Amino acid sequence: MLTSTKQSNPFTILLVDDRDENLLVLEELLDNGDRQFIKATSGNEALKYALKNDQIGLIMLDVQMPDMDGFEVAKFLKTNPKTRDISIIFVTAINKEEQYVLKGFEEGAVDYLSKPLDSNVTKAKVNVFEQLWFYQQALKRSAVDLATINKQLEKFVYIVAHDLKSPLTGLITLLHLLESTNDSHPVGQSELADYVGDLKEAGYHLSTMISTILEYSRQSIDQQASEEVSVSELLAQTSHLLFPPKHIQIHIIEPMPVLYTKKVKLQQVFQNLLSNAIKYNDKAQGQIDVGCNDKGDFIEFFVRDNGPGMTNEQQIHLFQLFQPSGHSQRESSTGVGLNILKMLVEEQGGTLRVVTAPGAGCTVLFDWRK
């Protein structure tokens, strides 16, 4: 692990001494073919290099220099947030009395080397600091990876909530219809059987979705199994389980392809698009058309409605998380849905596009790899 890391980010040492010959000797002593060296002949020059280069892992700092000595340089480095974490080894010809050693540690040194330098001791100490620096870089990368994973988990939670909401809302609506029946509004046996059948189907669908989500969470994207999917059957099932109001008609324009793909992801896209088209439709007779075009390696699907459409300003926020979509004052939205769809479509190598204008309905097009 350390070898590959060194190749991408070589260990950089800042050598600071007011005598050029000392810098050359120190570089020759420490050069192992992989390290990079920056040489400074004054404290001011050292500070300039340290502030500009965030790859410096160690500073070999001479104590006795004119204008600004090593103690002053170390003090400035440790008070600046950009440089305070750089390890410093003091190199000095001052006598070894305890007071000088303690002063060095007080100003931020992590180690001390006395001139004349012992080559074996010097190499060994630098090797230790080099290993520590690479471990620190690995920890920083791990922290970044963890932050990325946390963001992915947040998105996953919203995918789950968004996809479960639609069939659950339909199920609750049916229960309310049954609850509101009374002697003045009796439900016939046949109608009651239909209601119960729809409730059972919605319940089974929710159970299947939960099982699929649990399986999804156990597998990486590459490991998720593809299967043969009849898009016509998938759309018919998805449309039915969204329980559209009677005044909204969903028309599937045949023929639809049969794809070898990850069914859950394609279902997520259609479910979200159809759900939005139903939810935001403001017409007395709502019409939603679903169709496709063959584009070679991709199928271009579209979901077209005759709803209110959107302004240019509303379209700007369409794919942003936690921004209201602005379709309607009657509904609130976190803006998660289309952001998720965009991510799922882009996983296929395709794009998601919206064609709309105020009062002219909305058409959402997306590419799905065959």
From TrEMBL:
Q: Name one GO molecular function term.
A: ATP binding
Checking InterPro entries in the record gives: CheY-like_superfamily (IPR011006), HATPase_C_sf (IPR036890), HATPase_dom (IPR003594), His_kinase_dom (IPR005467), HisK_dim/P_dom (IPR003661), HisK_dim/P_sf (IPR036097), Sig_transdc_His_kin-like_C (IPR004358), Sig_transdc_resp-reg_receiver (IPR001789)
Q: Boundaries of each Histidine kinase domain copy? A: 159-370
Residues that bear 4-aspartylphosphate: 62
> What are the record keywords, sorted?
ATP-binding, Nucleotide-binding, Phosphoprotein
Q: Which domain of life is it from?
A: Bacteria
Q: What is its EC number?
A: 2.7.13.3
**Catalytic activity of the protein:** ATP + protein L-histidine = ADP + protein N-phospho-L-histidine
Instruction: Give residue ranges for domain Response regulatory.
Output: 12-130
The record ties this protein, via PROSITE patterns, to:
HIS_KIN, RESPONSE_REGULATORY
**Is Protease tagged as a keyword?**
no
Q: Can you tell me which residues the record assigns to a coiled coil? A: none
Keyword Cytoplasm in record: no
Q: Which PANTHER family match?
A: HYBRID SIGNAL TRANSDUCTION HISTIDINE KINASE C (PTHR43547:SF2), TWO-COMPONENT HISTIDINE KINASE (PTHR43547)
Name of the featured protein = histidine kinase
Tell me the organism.
Spirosoma flavum
